[in-house]
Each structure stands twice: as C-alpha cells, then as structure tokens.
Design brief:
Layout (H helix, E strand, L loop, with lengths): L8 H7 L12 H7 L4 E4 L4 E4 L7 E7 L1 E7 L5 E7 L3 E2 L1 H6 L6 E4 L4 E6 H9 L2 H34 L1
Antiparallel strand pairs: 1-8, 2-7, 3-6, 3-8, 4-5, 4-7
C-alpha cells in the first residue's frame, strides 16, 4: 500500500482533492482550550505524524502550514486530503480509540501541536461545548471524505471510458 510513503509535496499535490478534508475548523473556544496543553512540533522538513493502521494515540492541531493526509485506494494510488491551519488531524482514530485510517505528513515549515488521546478526552469531557465542537468537525470530515471519494471514483470511471 503506497510503499513509497513519504513522498514529495509535488507528488502529494498531484493526488490531492478539493475541498479540504474539512472546511470546518475548531472554534476559537476549542483552540484556546487545546492550546493550554499541547506539545509543539516545528517541521524543519517533511515529517510523518502517523501512518495508516497505527494506534490512534494522539490528536494534532495544524497551527500553520499544511498537513497532507493520504488514503490508499490501491498499492500504487491514493487520495490526498489537505488539512490547513485550525484543522484537527487524527481526530477520528484518537476519539474512537482505533487505528489511524490515513497517513499524515506535516509539510516542511508547518507548525503542529500534538496532544495525547488521554489528555484530549479529558479536555472534551471537561466542557460539553468542546464535545459538540468535536462532533461538528467529525461530521464535516465525514461529509468531505465521502464527497472526495465519490468524485475520485467518478474520475477513475470516466478515464477508463476514454
């Protein structure tokens, strides 16, 4: 499954779809709460945050730059999603205590904050409005991913018909 990961930003850009993984980013109140407990990561070069199948041990907040997320569709192909500033990455896996369903690469120059699953769950349990924020983000990500998968499938089908 995409054995050549990580790859270059240009290669990612060629597989990335629009819209972003989620146009719904964390609210100002959520960002304020998250910013009290994270560990910062400054990416001097491209950095793999997690790989598909690894345990969902952390949630990442993109502070600046971009994180590329790759969903493999075959051994050689994948669909790329972009997470911009204000986006939470790894949320579905950490929230559900499951493995990551994509590989995440923070591109050179990006700044990302990371929080352990345990701290994240404690944070959202402490304030119901933060829990609602998480549900809103998860719903928006699910919708965006479904749309992207349908569009990618349509493009593949159209290219086979030519």
């Amino acid at each position: 499954m995409l054995a050549c990961l990580p790859f270059s930003k240009d290669e990612f850009d060629s597989m990335a779809v629009e819209p972003l993984l989620s146009e719904s980013t964390a609210s100002p109140a959520f960002l304020e709460a998250f910013n009290r407990k994270p560990v910062p990561i400054s990416c001097k070069e491209n950095e793999v945050l997690f790989r598909i199948g690894e345990p969902g041990t952390s949630v990442y907040l993109v502070r600046s730059g971009e994180v590329g997320l790759v969903l493999p569709v075959s051994d050689l192909n994948g669909i790329g999603f972009r997470a911009k500033a204000g986006s939470l990455v790894g949320l579905p896996a950490a929230f559900s205590n499951e493995g990551y369903s994509m590989t995440a690469i923070a591109w050179q120059g990006s700044e990302v904050f990371v929080m352990s699953r345990e701290r994240f769950c404690d944070l959202i349990a402490s304030d119901h409005s933060l829990s609602l924020d998480v549900l809103k983000i998860l719903a928006a990500e699910t919708r965006a991913a479904r749309i992207a998968i349908v569009e990618a499938s349509a493009k593949r089908r159209d290219s086979k018909c030519l």
